[in-house]
Hints:
Structural class: alpha/beta
Number of helices: 2
Low-confidence stretches: 90-100, 103-112
Shape: elongated
Radius of gyration: 18 Å
Order of helices and strands: EHEEEHEE
Number of strands: 6
Distance between the termini: 33 Å
Helix content: 10-25%
Amino acid sequence: MLSGELPIMESAYTEGTKSLIIMRVDFPDYTGERVSFTTLSNLVQSMNTFWRDMSYDKAGWASVGSGSDVTPTLRLPLDSSNYESLGRCARRHVRRPRRRVTIWATTSSTWW
Length: 112
């Protein structure tokens, strides 16, 4: 820090290890082709490595079982076509069933 510069405070919202919950879903008319627990666990590890590299080790993701979690596959109540009107993101997941993964980032009790 140069003289005359103010210190930069850390932010719990942007720094530190964050927890994830990955929710796997399928539909009554579009079952199967689920993403495996191992694949998702490896995805979280890869994301953690990438985020730590990009943030100079100031931010990352907790590994599955150590703060992050993967749900069992949840059956949504309506056919897949009923979710297409929810927006571009929902349609993308319906059209590519192998990528049907929803990720919520949590810190404390805050959901974003």
